[in-house]
Each structure stands twice: as structure tokens, then as C-alpha cells.
């Protein structure tokens, strides 16, 4: 799960923080800050990209228009999270924590809790997976309503082929083309995992995806605890 920086509330033409009387009006600002990706599963989305309330608006109406309560989410992550009565400290959040440390991405795009975490951290990471359903693998569902894992697996396959192409033809153009492919296909964590041994590509992926939290990495682009975060 990509750690992101939403930033402070955008300002209007008068230079004052915007007031979102309709929370949908924040969509453009969020896309500008975070890119057109689900904040949880990293799926690339266009018209179906919805504003996600971290604390559900039906249970916290005073936060319905609060910039700091907004993320972007796909239909599956949004519906899986639903209207649960959220206690923030029970989960890891991409805008608060270094969520890239919480999970590992395995061959085929599977998402699992990072086994190197402490027991309490693993428990919190597992709750986060269950909240959003990122560990789901579709069963017998002819309608294929949840395609997150299938699309993540496709991205994994493309990333592995791209890595092989780079090994066969390591040029600046090839690296730029791979970054552009990654931006189009989405699933930042997949590309970061497949190219984990290539520091230059890691840096390019961090820079290419809008809103990626730079303070979650050290100078050599290793994952570090997020300042002020729980992990």
C-alpha cells in the first residue's frame, strides 16, 4: 500500500483554505495531489474514482467535508470498508503511516502482512488487510465483481517482463518507458517489489507517482518508519 501525502487543505483564489460544502468538489484537488489511483489497492482509475471518507460520513457527519478525512478509493475498496465504526489507531493508513512497511507483495500480486514486523504490528496490518479486502483472491464469481487481484497479477507479469527487457537493453529510454508503463498500469507496490534491486528505478517510481511520501524512505530509498506515524 503506497504511503501518500495529501498535504494541507488547498487554497482558493482568495488565498484561503477551501471549504467543501459538497465533498465531491474535492475530487480534482485530491487527484492533483495523489494521482488517479485508489489510495488502498493502487488500482488506476478514471471516472469511477470516488472520494473515500476515512471515518464514515454517516457516523461522523461533521467530517463529511473535512479535507483531512478524504482519500481516493475504487468501488471494491470503498464497499469493502463500508460504513464500519472506525477506530483510527486499530489500522494503518496510507496518509498517516508508512504502509509500504506493513505489507509484502509476492509473486502473482498476492498481498500479505510483512512477517518481519513485531507481533502487535502484524495484528494491526492484518486488520488493515481485512478492512479493505486486499488479501482477497476471487473464488467462484462468474460476474468477477472484485478484479483487484486479477489486475494486480497482470501488472506483476508486465513488471517482470519489463525487468527482463531492461536487463537485455538497459538504456535511458527503456527506463523512461518502464516508468510510463508503471504509471499507466498502476499498482505502485508491484513495481517497487519487482524492481527492488534497482535503486535508480525505485527512485523513479517514487518520483513518478504523485503524492508518494518521500519521508518514508531514507537516502538510499530503504523503507523507514514514517515521522509521526505508527509504523
Care to describe what's here?
This protein is mainly alpha-helical and 231 residues long. Helices cover 35% and strands 7% of the residues. It is built from seven helices and four strands. The protein has helices at 27-34, 75-81, 119-132, 148-168, 172-185, 188-194, 199-208; strands spanning 50-53, 70-73, 103-106, 110-113. Strands 1-2 form a two-stranded antiparallel ribbon. A two-stranded antiparallel ribbon has the order 3-4. Strand 3 and strand 4 (110-113) form a beta hairpin. Helix 4 (148-168) packs antiparallel against helix 5 (172-185). The protein is globular and about 55 Å long. The protein starts with 26 loop residues before the first helix and ends in a 23-residue tail after the last helix. The mean pLDDT is 94. Pfam families: HNH (PF01844). This is HNH endonuclease. Keywords: Endonuclease, Hydrolase, Nuclease. Residues 38-83 form the HNH domain. GO terms for molecular function: endonuclease activity; nucleic acid binding; zinc ion binding.
Structural topology:
Blueprint: H1 27-34, E1 50-53, E2 70-73, H2 75-81, E3 103-106, E4 110-113, H3 119-132, H4 148-168, H5 172-185, H6 188-194, H7 199-208
Antiparallel strand pairs: 1-2, 3-4
Helix pairs in contact: 4-5, 5-7
Q: What is the residue-averaged pLDDT?
A: 94
SS-derived structural category:
mainly alpha
What is the spatial order of strands in the main beta sheet?
Answer: 1-2
| Helix count, DSSP H or I runs of 4 or more residues | 7
Q: Nearest-angstrom radius of gyration?
A: 18 Å
Which H/E pattern describes the elements? HEEHEEHHHHH
Shape: globular
Report the portion of residues in β strands.
Answer: 5-15%
Distance between the termini: 13 Å
Strand segment tally: 4
> Can you summarize the main beta sheet?
2 strands, antiparallel
Fraction of residues in H or I helices: 25-40%
The poorly predicted ranges are none
